[in-house]
Design goal:
By secondary structure, the protein is of the alpha/beta class. The protein has eight helices and nine strands. It comes from Iningainema tapete BLCC-T55.
């Protein structure tokens, strides 16, 4: 269970000088409006996650550690030898010497590399604000320590619809069609990180419909797909997340469930709906 604690920083105690600004006539920028909306969503998510009871928020108390995430990525490998022969094949070289009686040229082979490419899709802002630290951990560890052939990280809000974004602020957009068409289907696996509507505790037929359409399209361009949901499983019932979990293998965010998601991306079959049990 996520725990939330509000801590005061030294900046909170700074004295703000009075001004004569007329707030009723002040025009707010889109960024300020978005920030205010996010803060409202955070409050809603916190209240709903604990059934309208207060609880402390500890941002860094993750249900899965940095090291565990890193180890999980390293299980997601499919090695092959590609490229220029640069590594010594000792066994083949010994056999060649035994056959020829002399070592003229050692036997070289291409280096073993991980062929898997990861597509990481992250739900950003709104009810996902409390989980930004974890989403950043997923992106950072995959990009820096996952040792994939390639990592593509895109962001969306609520559900992918027409566009994905290369940045967390939703400024650098790319159409979903362009994004998917550039993927090598034989090498790419996809992990989606989103509460799927469970944080708000409601059901959205539009969100379910758009997500279903996207998953169907996504399946044509990737080998396997798994979904990580930061909201505990018991809170999926009667929400959009419950229906989406019937469309794609969905897992909670903890060490055991994260490794289950990795197994799905490795090709270990899990019947749809098992994640609801």
């Amino acid at each position: 269970m996520w725990k939330i604690r509000q801590t005061a920083s030294p900046r909170d105690e700074e004295i703000i000088p009075e001004t004569n600004i007329n707030l009723s006539k002040t025009v707010l920028s889109p960024e300020v409006i978005r920030t205010m909306a996010d803060e409202i969503e955070v409050a809603k998510a916190i209240r709903l996650l604990d059934n309208q009871s207060e609880f402390p928020l500890i941002v860094n108390d993750l249900p899965v550690t940095h090291r565990q995430i890193k180890q999980g990525w390293r299980y997601l490998r499919r090695f092959s030898r590609e490229g220029t022969p640069i590594e010594l094949d000792l066994e083949a070289t010994i056999q060649k010497v035994a056959q020829q009686g002399i070592l003229l040229n050692p036997v070289l082979v291409p280096r073993r590399t991980n062929r898997i490419e990861l597509l990481l899709l992250i739900d950003q802002d709104g009810s996902m604000v409390p989980f930004h630290h974890l989403s950043q951990e997923l992106a950072d560890t995959a990009s820096r320590g996952g040792r994939f052939s390639r990592v593509r990280v895109y962001y969306f809000h609520n559900c992918p619809d027409e566009y994905l974004y290369r940045d967390r602020y939703h400024l650098n957009a790319v159409s979903i069609d362009d994004c998917l068409s550039n993927l090598p289907p034989s090498k790419t696996v996809c992990l989606i990180f989103s509460d799927a509507g469970a944080a708000r505790g409601g059901f959205s037929s539009r969100r379910r419909r758009l997500t279903k359409f996207f998953l169907k399209e996504l399946g044509q361009y990737v080998r396997y797909t798994a979904w990580l949901n930061p909201v505990p499983r018991q809170r999926w019932e009667n929400t959009t997340a419950h229906d989406i979990a019937a469309l794609v293998p969905m897992f909670e965010v903890n060490r055991q469930e994260f490794y289950k998601a990795i197994n799905v991306l490795r090709g270990r079959h899990q019947p749809l709906g098992d994640s609801l049990r």
